Amino acid sequence: MQCQLHVAGLCYSCQWIDKPYSQQLKEKQQALVTLLETVPVEHIGIPVSGAEAGCRNKAKMVVSGSVERPVLGLPVKQGEAVDLCGCPLYPESMRDAFPHLKQFIARAGLTPYNVERKRGELKFILLTESRLNGGLMLRFVLRSETKLQQLRQALPWLQAQLPQLQVISVNIQPVHMAVLEGEQEVILTQQDVLEEQLNHIPLYIRPRSFFQTNPEVAAKLYATATEWVSILNIHSMWDLFCGVGGFGLHCAANAKIKLTGIEISAEAIECAKRSAAAIGLSDIEFDSLDSTQFARSKHQQNIPDLVLVNPPRRGIGEELCEYLNQMSPDWILYSSCNAQTMAKDIQQLTGYGIVKVQLFDMFPHTAHYEVLTLLQRIEVR
Q: pLDDT value at position 298?
């Protein structure tokens, strides 16, 4: 992938961009093997990858510059603002939308927020694209509601320029820190969810719910999880940290599995329930709860055949590992965006051995990757 921003020394987010992509995959695979070298592994698959460019479906842009000439990109460093609107990780359809967003900022009088002076209103712009129909979800992160009415009044112009805008919202984030979003979300359109579809499974994204940023590789990740689960004779499963339900819905839609999905985000749970209804699944339950507290409350009650965990970068932690050891489901399927914390967790899952491991390159040109690991309870003889 060629990137003029990198060549010019303006952006170093893709730290591995100068390495051939085949070399990137080789080094990531070796890093994973090294992390797991003290744990017996029956099978390690070859890395799964996708497109090197145009692979991201979400842009998180810091807004700087002036109201007349806004800059969308990286935080200001040493007085310099770096515009990322030409970043080749975004598909052309998303890059084409950025100039209209800049014009809108000027028309609506949305003064970019200045961190040092603690002045201005517009902090971030977040844009998400559906690969299903090209629809866009746009979020403005403002410091207060001061400019909300101005934004509303100018919105028809933007919608005329970008008719693919399906969901538009404003998030109010009043803290004078580099925090991405606040608790208050104001929906400005009749539609409040962006519909996506991976492997013919309908998924829904709300403004504050998490969704994978690389849909091509995410589809392969979900398909692999479905394939692995389908041959295990599973009748019941928990999907912890389930988000909008991608893993659980894929597995349950292809087999008669009693599914319980747990996620702390109420918005994500609403999306998961909507997907389940669209598919026609009935033997399914989604609840907005803390995953560790849920597992602790259900200890030794209706233990599922399989527990799937897809935690944030911090991993599942010592407490949940302990409860999984005590519960002893036959199988644990661990999806991780941080192999280091996953490896630490696996060391604490003392009653389990690794059956399969597969690397998914969700983040090309960086050292980061996603990994899927199937663990089986070790029979004590």
A: 67
pLDDT of residue 381: 33
Domain borders along the chain are 11-52+214-377, 58-198
Q: Is the pLDDT of residue 299 over 60?
A: no
Residue 266: C-alpha distances to residues 67, 175, 208, 286, 381 (Å): 35, 23, 9, 10, 43
Annotation-wise, does 340 bind a ligand?
no
What one-letter code names the amino acid at 243? Answer: G
Measuring CA to CA, which residue among 18, 95, 25 is closest to residue 61?
95
Ligand-binding annotation for 3, yes or no, is yes
- For the chain, percent of residues with pLDDT exceeding 70: 97
Q: What is the CATH number of domain 11-52+214-377?
A: 3.40.50.150
* Average pLDDT, rounded, for the chain: 93
Report the predicted TM-score, pTM, of the whole model to 2 decimal places: 0.94
Is 294 marked within a binding site?
no
CATH no., domain 58-198: 2.40.50.1070
Maximum Cα–Cα distance across the chain:
73
Q: Is 271 a catalytic residue?
A: no
- Contact present, 135 and 193 (Cβ < 8 Å): no
Q: Which tokens is 151 given? A: 């934004």
CA of residue 201 relative to chain centroid, distance = 17
Does 118 have pLDDT greater than 90?
no
Q: What is the pLDDT of residue 74?
A: 84
Q: Which two tokens stand for residue 360?
A: 């998914």
Place of tokens 């510059």: 65
Identify which of 224, 296, 310 has the alpha carbon closest to the alpha carbon of residue 263: 310
Distance between CA atoms of residues 160 and 166, nearest Å: 12
> Residue 263 annotated as binding?
yes
Structure confidence at residue 380 (pLDDT)? 46
Residue 242 among known ligand-binding residues: no
**Reading across the β-sheet that carries 306-309, which strands appear in turn?**
41-44, 352-360, 370-377, 331-336, 306-309, 236-240, 258-263, 284-288
| Catalytic annotation, pick one of 55, 242, 271, 337 | 337
| Residue 379 DSSP symbol | P
b/e per residue 231-262 (b: at least 16 CB within 10 A): ebebebbbbbbbbbbbbbbbbbbebebbbbbb
Residue 91 pLDDT greater than 90, yes or no: yes
Q: How far apart, in whole angstroms, are the C-alpha atoms of residue 154 and residue 366?
A: 38
